């Protein structure tokens, strides 16, 4: 089965579950409510839809259902990034990187990691 692409709201929920691990709807809703005005029933319905789409798993063995991400953070990031590179940057990963570095203040540590990554890529291509 091809993985469904999560919507922006679904990504927010996945982000919470990737960070916290398996959680109840209430726990996810409380975390969401810290940054946005979202009703509990809206969060519940969205998580039920995400379960039906295969984005979440659900443990219904107790009265309170426990949800967990059914998709990995890394796979989701790769999928969304590939789509963005293809659609927004005409398939050019270098344009994405140049745009990101030109409009984002990177720490020295981040720049060192980028340099190391580029060095590793160069070694692999030789």
Automatic annotation (TrEMBL):
Transcription regulation among keywords: yes
Biological process according to GO: negative regulation of DNA-templated transcription
Pfam family of the protein (one): Penicillinase_R
KW Transcription (keyword) present: yes
GO function term, MF aspect, one: DNA binding
Entry keyword set: DNA-binding, Transcription, Transcription regulation
Name of the featured protein: Predicted transcriptional regulator
